[in-house]
Write a structure and sequence with these properties.
Elements: E1 2-5, H1 20-31, E2 35-39, H2 44-47, E3 60-62, E4 67-69, E5 75-77, H3 82-94, E6 98-102, E7 107-109, H4 116-119, E8 140-145, H5 149-156, E9 161-166, E10 171-176, H6 181-188, E11 195-199, H7 205-208, E12 213-217, H8 221-226, E13 229-231, H9 235-249
Length: about 250
């Protein structure tokens, strides 16, 4: 069976790398013959540092589906078309937004140095923070703050994009239209109802709807509505749930 895991808030917490106990649980899945895919809002650049090196060859979906890695860290991207990218940039300027905008590897960041996202941004310093206009393509946008989020969101929703709101962090995630964790999984070759998904936020909804079994970590109201099971946002309880699901299969 294929297990698909979101990362932050699902199997890793407070932006820290996977714990030894969590890695042991995932290794047990592999030892039992199961496959693992990581599906995160993080771009691949920021996803790799929280995984142990031996898991860097696992298939990955990053940026809520905008980045896909199948083997040998070959990264493919789904980026905004030129017109939409320019429209987004204009709105960022109009509403004096603070942002993180990702290209395939480099990025443009305008937020504060103490923002939680900044702490998880390119920790291995393998990319460059470049001016927004110099990014060769725009793959994913995170709006950290603006002078009017409501009006900004209204105008954004007139564009061919997908938005996810993270209320606890008061940020807006933006992806190209029709891009989601589920579309990323399809690019890897995953079929509907042929995998088990663990997640904790609204950006996990598309893949939860296609999962054979879906476990909501925590109590996100929209995600619980489409999940088959729920577990509290506690690492030890999540580990127990992973083992429980594995044993149900075996």
């Amino acid at each position: 069976m294929t297990f698909v895991f979101d990362l932050d808030g699902t199997i890793c917490f407070k932006g820290k790398p996977l714990s030894k106990q969590m890695v042991d649980a995932l290794n047990l899945l592999v030892d039992k013959g199961h496959d693992i895919i990581f599906a995160s809002a993080r771009p691949i650049r920021d996803l790799l540092p929280i995984l142990p090196p031996q898991m860097h060859h696992f298939p990955m979906v990053g940026g809520n589906g905008a980045f896909v890695v199948t083997e040998e860290l070959h990264i493919s991207t789904s980026h905004f078309d030129t017109t939409t990218g320019k429209d987004i940039i204009q709105l960022l300027k109009k509403y004096k937004a603070e942002y993180l905008v990702d290209s395939a590897w480099d990025y443009a960041y305008s937020g504060s140095e103490d923002h939680p996202i900044r702490k998880n941004l390119d920790p291995n310093q393998t990319a460059k923070n470049v001016p927004l206009e110099k990014l060769n393509e725009i793959v994913k946008v995170v709006i950290l703050h603006s002078n009017d989020n409501e009006k900004l969101l209204h105008e954004l929703n007139q564009l061919p994009i997908v938005t996810y709101l993270h209320g606890s962090e008061d940020i807006i995630d933006i992806n190209p239209k029709d891009v989601s964790k589920w579309s990323g999984l399809q690019m890897i070759g995953i079929a509907p109802f042929d995998f088990i998904a663990f997640g904790n936020d609204a950006n996990d909804i598309p893949m939860f709807k296609q999962a054979k079994r879906s476990i909501c970590v925590g109590n996100h109201p929209e995600l619980i509505h489409v999940s088959s099971e729920q577990v509290a946002s506690d690492e030890q309880l999540v580990i127990q749930k992973i083992i429980e699901v594995m044993n149900d299969i075996d």
